[in-house]
UniProtKB/TrEMBL annotation:
This is Tyrosine-type recombinase/integrase. Gene3D superfamilies: 1.10.150.130, Intergrase catalytic core (1.10.443.10). One of its GO terms (molecular function) is DNA binding. SUPFAM superfamilies: DNA breaking-rejoining enzymes, lambda integrase-like, N-terminal domain. Keywords: DNA recombination, DNA-binding. Residues 176-421 form the Tyr recombinase domain. It comes from Novosphingobium olei.
């Protein structure tokens, strides 16, 4: 059995404060507030309305093709398509005229409008790709492939630059590689997780997300039966579907014994044995109230209150204890909830002086954190430990090494061929 690391001490729940009552209930006993309606259906309706408005009265939508295009895409891709088309529709409202099908001059004007609004080249490139999809839906040739549009996009990229803003990395902390981690680390966030039921969940979520490098869309879909424990305390996580595996061939990721201790602590405390692993938790708190002596009701002159037969006169009032009730929901966390957990835990780590950041540096570091930070941090730690881009891309389920190199471009030079050779002869 591997030795327990110092960071694994917080896997047991802290006992309640003296005089406090803590209860755990299920959603069946105390239902949580319902979320908004079906967002996927709302996006389909939004896309349909936008298309109808853009093509005007003379056009028509191939409904079957429209439905099949959406079925072939992941929910995140449908969301991106809706956002991209809404951006183009806003431009058409300002520029007037029929928006679809568009000619090359209109697409160039849209590109210039995007540049004036200081959109990133990667975002504009994705929106042109969405417009190409829409033109295919209408059975019209896409103007985005025209030579003048390609030149306009090339000029835009040259003037603005193509460097993309990267999520702030959440590396593990001390002990990995020769390049020390700076700012927020996974170790600091785990230490900042309180030993309450939500704290146990958050620590398990952060630890599992780092070990596996899951995207947030994959993380919120982890089910209890996806985790297969091993004899050495580790586990293998099944990833049924991912961004690069829309057909569901499946993949696997390894979970460390430390992560499994945290996952087991969360599951035991929440009695969560099936369904989504990471769930919503509602918190209901009541304040303590001191005992109040019984008070007599004022009576008119000459009148006396009479109690019913058998009733007892109250002689002593009991105090009300402070209580915290955790209601464990049935639905999984949303990506927005995961983002909130990361930022909230980072702020708690800063309040507890677990990171050496203050002022504007602290604000910038928290603003840079996102649901992708743990994936970026794991990639950088792998580069720092001397791994090559190929095995890293395979471990994090990328189809090519380009994204891995982009995430680890600051640390990759320390493990490339030149560094390995020079370290031997010029170390």
């Amino acid at each position: 059995m591997p030795a327990k690391s110092p960071s694994a001490r917080s896997v047991t729940a802290m006992p309640p404060a003296l005089g406090e009552l803590v209860m755990v209930r299920t959603a069946a006993e105390a239902p949580l507030p319902r979320r908004r309606g079906d967002r996927a259906a709302n996006r389909v309706a939004q896309l349909t309305a936008l298309l109808v408005a853009l093509i005007g009265q003379g056009g028509a939508i191939d409904r079957l093709a429209f439905r099949k295009i959406l079925e072939a895409r992941a929910p995140a891709s449908v969301k991106a398509l809706a956002n991209d088309l809404a951006c183009y529709a806003a431009f058409c409202t300002r520029a007037r005229g029929i928006g679809l099908p568009a000619d090359e001059a209109r697409i160039v004007a849209y590109l210039e409008d995007c540049e004036r609004r200081q959109l990133k080249p990667a975002t504009v490139g994705r929106r042109l790709a969405s417009l190409a999809v829409v033109h295919g839906l209408l059975g019209a040739p896409s103007p985005t492939r025209g030579a003048i549009v390609r030149d306009a996009l090339r000029g835009f990229r040259r003037r603005v630059g193509v460097a993309q803003r990267q999520a702030g990395p959440l590396r593990f902390g001390a002990g990995i590689g020769t390049e020390p981690a700076k700012g927020f680390t996974l170790s600091a966030l785990l230490q900042a997780c309180p030993r309450t039921l939500p704290g146990l969940r958050d620590a398990a979520l952060l630890s599992l997300a780092y070990d596996t490098g899951l995207r947030v869309s994959e993380l919120v879909k982890v089910m209890c039966h996806h985790v297969a424990s091993q004899s050495d305390g580790s586990a293998v996580l099944t990833v049924p579907r991912s961004k690069t595996d829309q057909e569901g061939q499946g993949a696997y990721a390894w979970l460390s014994p430390d992560t499994m201790r945290r996952v087991s602590a969360w599951r035991n405390a929440s009695a969560n044995s099936e369904g989504p692993l990471f769930r919503r938790i509602g918190v209901i708190r009541t304040k303590a109230r001191e005992a109040e002596p019984p008070r007599s009701l004022p009576a008119p002159p000459g009148f006396q209150w009479r109690l019913p037969a058998g009733a007892k006169v109250p002689t002593e009032a009991k105090p009300v204890l402070a209580s915290t009730t955790y209601v464990i929901g049935e639905a999984p966390l949303t990506p927005a909830a995961v983002r909130l957990i990361i930022k909230r835990t980072a702020m708690r780590a800063a309040d507890e002086h677990l990171v050496n950041l203050v002022g504007k540096d602290l604000d910038a570091a928290i603003a840079a954190l996102s649901t992708h930070s743990l994936r970026v941090g794991l990639t950088q730690d792998l580069f720092a430990s001397g791994e090559d881009a190929g095995p890293i891309a395979q471990a994090l389920r990328w189809t090519s090494t380009s994204t891995a190199l982009r995430y680890g471009r600051k640390l990759a030079p320390a493990s490339n061929a030149t560094a390995r050779m020079l370290r031997e002869v010029r170390g």
